[in-house]
Give the backbone structure.
Amino acid sequence: MRFIQELFSQLSVARVVVIGFMLAISLGSLAIFISERGALSYVDSFYLSASAVCITGLSPIPLSELEKSTQAILLFLIQLGGLGIISFTVLIGVLILKGMSRNTKFNMFVKEAIDSPEDNKIESVYSSKEVNRVLLSIINISFTIEAIGTILIYYTFPEDIPADTDRLFLSLFTSISAFNNAGFSILDDLSIITYDPRSIYIVSSLAILGGIGFPVIIYIEKIFLEALHRGLFYLESLLETHYYSYILNHPEKTEYPSLYPFILKISHMVDERLDTYNMHLHGESNRIQTKLLFYGTLILLLLGTVFVYALESSNPHTLYGMDASVKIANSFFISVCSRTSGFNTFDLTGINDATIVMICILMFIGGGPQGTAGGVKITTFAILVVYLKNVINPSKTVQIFGETVSKNSVAISIRVYFLATSAIAVIFIILTLLNRNEHSLHVVFFEMMSAFSTVGFSLGLTPTLGDIEKLFYCLIMFVGRIGVFTVLIAMTGHAGVPKMGDDDESVKIQVG
């Protein structure tokens, strides 16, 4: 074990991520193949494993036809892939952002990723114990959200689920799949909640939380804890006043009210958590990035909902005939899933061409960095939009919310966009050659964008693919999940981005 730890410590973070995900996919494919006992080819097993670990959601066969043990394996791979992405993209985000040495150790990456103050020495301040605490926090928050989601889904999903489907397992699978933005469902789709807006909004909320980025969730939790701290302090004061007043009137009574020790214990736990966050969540980057992701997510969700509603309301194959509230819920759901999870409540093969274009744009943009969503990320897109505005109306710096964005962040955004669009162009040419005019180009392009952005939407192409095409799509999902930039860094060993000068003290926003 120590030998493996020493071996991995000598590798760059990019190479550790690439090797780690390759091993997970390979072992997962063997487990699926063995579980299906020959009913599934190894290529299909490998495809399913790649789709689960890369939390994409594309499948060559309906998941409802798989063995229960295989569904459980997929659930484990989804959870493993989701936690891996959340944990490792904290490191990748810094690798791309900082252009740091390929020999930079794990602790330094985590320290930089949560924007800790730079005047502290990493060895003394950010010990391995504190690194473990951050990773444990990731696991705790993930499991807590998934558990709450499971309970909500269990009690809100419609009663008319298939007789051979366990309701608890369905709730757990859907919750984990939604939070990790995997898009898998053991019912094959979520048409069961098409006319149930309450269930739609619950699944949508899980997908949004998973896709917005873990640092944002931590920052939101910190704000919540601060409000809770103030409330508990006020409650403590009230209880103490009540206690002393009670003692004055009843001097023979000396025990505390039963509620008081409980409030003190909760208050102590909140204080400890806040102390941890206050130690590590310093700097302007957290505030700016959180604000950017919040407004960016809100704008994209609203635009997507409006476009789907406007384009599909009169479409007899999708939303036509539904009540207005149901139309809005389904439009919102497609808008959410286009950037993240890939669930669908109706057959996408019937959507309009304009809707396909809009969904492809949302898939390309994706969600927040250091989350489970794919795409080039909201931060990358936002920086590029502001940069483009500066080209039209020249300005020396790129500013967001009145703050100057780091030159490194701008440079990396341009590189990420260029690499993503170049990769998409090359991949599309190869897929058209493999396709041999068997399917429409827009179907091939949509499936490719879904795989590259790890969304999981499909127009029915995946089950018809040959073995060579399936393996190529596995490569697309892998590169799309890890990131073209990270794969290149892992292959070449270069740092990725040179230093932009010693005076670049501007706000650093993580992209890609």
Observations:
- Residues 214-249 form the longest helix (36 residues).
